[in-house]
Amino acid sequence: MKEIAIVGYQQSDAVSDAGACNEVELIMPVLGRVYEQVGIGSAQDVDFVCSGSCDYMQGAAFAFVMGVDALGAVPPIKESHVEMDAAWALYESILKIKMGHADSALVYGFGKSSPGELPIVLSQQLDPYYLAPQWIDTISLAAMQARMMLDQGLITERDMAEVVSASRRNAMENNPHAQLKGELSVDDVLAQDTFVSPLRKADICPISDGASAMVIATVEKAKAWGKPYAVISGIDHIIETHNMGMRDLTDSPSTRKAAERAGVSNGKVDVAELYAPFSHQEIILSRALGLSEDTSVNPSGGVLAGNLMMASGLSRVGEVFNRIIAGEAERGVAHATSGPCLQHNLVAVVEKGEKA
Amino acid sequence: MSEENEMITGIEVPIYLKYNFTAGAAPARFLSQLKNGVLTGQRRAAPDAQVYVPPRGSCPATGLPTEEEVNVADKATVQSFTIVHIPIPGNAIEPPFVVANLVADGANISFIHLMSECDNAEVRIGQRVQAVWKPEEEWDYSMDNIKYFKPIEEPDVPVDEIGKLPVTGLEV
FRET label pair with A221: which of A42, A84, A126, B149, CA 20 to 30 Å apart? Predict the structure, then answer.
């Protein structure tokens, strides 16, 4: 099987409202930067393109098709889309390369969440008979999950506040694209009122607009390009039932299993980027992945510092790539999630490539 | 359960989601210019660049930003059309009516608008038309500023020249 290399990754700033900027205008600059990083001219220079987005974000049917206007699809290109986070577009692209149908791929994700009421919009991803008609928003469901963990003594509110505080500090130090960053002590967090109890506003990721893009290729192709690269040595994703009552919300068995199959424990994990939209979920995920004290968790600040819906999962992989290329880590784990209370989870292991 | 319940075969679950839709920088410029009674397209800053009306901000053929603004004429050519015979719920227009893909002079891509003041049976590809505007005081940020396009007395444009006319119209 062909080994997969990440050769380029770029993202836009995470902003609370991109204003009078449509999806194409959000995507184009990011694609331009990733072409430059890899040293290619356009999407014509890769064999396959796959994007991740969700029409419910901007509230327009087939909005994802407009994204193609940012690609330059003349002459025609091989192109696909997932109505999911672009981490799954990455997964599709990896399969495409492994099957021998492409040697390189451009993956991008974009989301303009500001036009709608995101937590309500996301209630429509629940099962359509029992839960969606009740309009249960994502924050309420996550609050219920956090409450179960607190009641069972699995976490404390201080543990949650520590996640928030670390996120803001890491974002300040390492992430020029972050929306929320700065010094916010654990006591500052705990002094905040609860928003949807037990969650405080700081426990909840912000709503962000933006895009991210990645170029992957076979290791041979990456070497031919002559750019620094990292290797995706394992990737898997598993989904749990949509029936919330049948899940143990205090744990993430799907993450644990995906991690086993991706080979997380086959080596030291220097860095982990986890898609945890709520502070307590970072703790669930760290435990499910079996991370030790030696692992730097969410050095970018994670999505508590900025959550580009439908691009944040891809960005987690991109952030691990960034750490490896910067020489700060040799091996890392990236995680993406989708659905309420960590229903669907993807785990990827990214490792340093040979010297180019 | 002791008594047998009637079988439920369906439920009604209406969905209401509110959005603050924004058109984007390029379409917003197009709409602002419409309020002034002007059709504005955009193209890349390149000699052979295509003019897109309405602009979306990118040149879809190349994926590059359209940085140059171009005003186009309110004269256009029929690229294709449909005669609609079936009423559309909520639409005030009485069938049969003509919906056409029109390429404005100076533009390289069509937009969709209505045709009227015409014999539907005579509508054809290559036919020349011009915008019939609402009274100026009613102009808004909307394509509805143009009520419809009506045929004009100009020679038809050969199919392979549609979308390639200068703003001045077809030079014969």
Answer: A84
State whether residue A224 sits within 8 Å of chain B by CB: no
Query: CA dist A327 to A284, A323, A353, Å?
Result: 28, 6, 11
pLDDT tens-digit map of A241-286:
999 999 999 999 999 999 999 999 999 999 999 999 999 999 999 9
- Output the six-digit token pair for A219: 């290791």
Please count the other Cβ atoms lying within 10 Å of the Cβ belonging to residue B111: 18
Q: How far does the CA of residue A222 sit from the closest CA of chain B (Å)?
A: 24
- The DSSP string of A111-172 is EE-TTB-HHHHGGGGS-TTTTGGGT--HHHHHHHHHHHHHHTTS--HHHHHHHHHHHHHHHH
Task: State yes or no: ipTM above 0.90.
Answer: no
Lowest mean pLDDT among A27-36, A219-228, B17-26: B17-26
Q: Name the 3-class secondary structure at A205.
A: coil
Q: Whose structure tokens read 């919009």?
A: A121
A19 touches chain B (CB under 8 A): yes
Comparing CB atoms, the residue among B21, B23, B27 nearest residue A59 is B21
The label of the residue with tokens 């949650």 reads A160
Rounded percentage of chain A residues whose pLDDT exceeds 90: 93
Residue A43 to residue B63, Cβ atoms within 8 A? yes
Q: What is the pLDDT of residues B16-26, one digit of tens each?
A: 999 998 889 99
Q: Please list every residue in chain A whose beta carbon sits closer than 8 Å to the beta carbon of residue B62.
A: 42, 72, 74
Query: At a CB cut-off of 8 Å and minimum separation 6, what does A247 contact?
Result: A240, A241, A341, A343
Q: For residue B31, list chain A residues with Cβ-Cβ distance below 8 A.
A: none
Cβ–Cβ below 8 Å for B56 and A22: yes
Predicted TM-score (pTM) of the model is 0.93
Give the residue on B whose Cα is nearest the Cα of A122. Answer: B17
Distance CA A197, CA A139 (A): 10
The answer to whether the CB atoms of B26 and A66 lie below 8 A apart is no
Q: Mean pLDDT, to the nearest integer, of B58-70?
A: 93
User: Measured between alpha carbons, how far is A321 from A319 in angstroms, rounded to an integer?
Assistant: 5
Question: Would the pLDDT of A62 be above 90?
Answer: no
What distance in Å separates residue A28's CA from the closest CA in chain B? 7
Strand segments, DSSP code E, in chain B are 39-43, 58-59, 64-65, 68-72, 75-84, 97-104, 111-115, 128-133, 146-151
Residue A21: list chain B partners with CB under 8 A. Answer: 22, 24-25
Alpha helices in A2-137 (DSSP H): 23-38, 55-58, 63-67, 86-98, 118-121
Query: Band of the pLDDT at A109, cuts 50, 70, 90?
Result: very high
